[in-house]
Amino acid sequence: MATRIRLQRKGKKNQPFYHIVIADGRAPRDGRFIEKLGTYNPLTHPATVQLNFERALYWVETGASPSDTAHSILKHEGVYLMKHLKGGIAKGALTELEAERKFEAWKQAKETKVSNIKREDAERQRGEMKKRMEAETKTREVISAKVAAKYAQAAAQEAAAKSVEEELPAETEPATEEPQISE
What we know:
About 60% of the residues lie in helices and about 20% in strands. With about 180 residues, it is of the alpha+beta class. It has two domains: about 5-95, CATH 3.30.1320.10; about 95-160. Helix 1 (about 55-60) crosses helix 3 and helix 3 packs antiparallel against helix 4. The radius of gyration is 39 Å and the shape is elongated.
């Protein structure tokens, strides 16, 4: 039986989520599988991978052939590095302690890169938010200035109309009073 390490698609339309599984090579993509090794979410930045490292290493050492994407995920998680280091231990080129140190150093470097990516992404988002807020503040100031000018113009027109009304009755007062009708 030819076993394959591959991705099994889950999730909704336009929102993919994958299970990393061991399956018979003849089984359909989303069909029957032998074992679930983990999950892969490509929508997060950086992509989130949860993997049972020991079982993935076991299956790679057993000879399960991964798909292209599964291969890159396993490589990114260090499964192939550990396989390589174990091969060095078996040949006598490395001790187990040296192999463990090399793997831990690689793991620390990878975690540092991921944390830097997350930090830079957060800073970029904060910068974009700050620019948007500044643009919005400027827009609000322009709008409030226009509204204030409009109200000032309306108030000036109203004051001018009142002054004209006050001047007109004083100049055109009737000289005679209306005659009173007595009954």
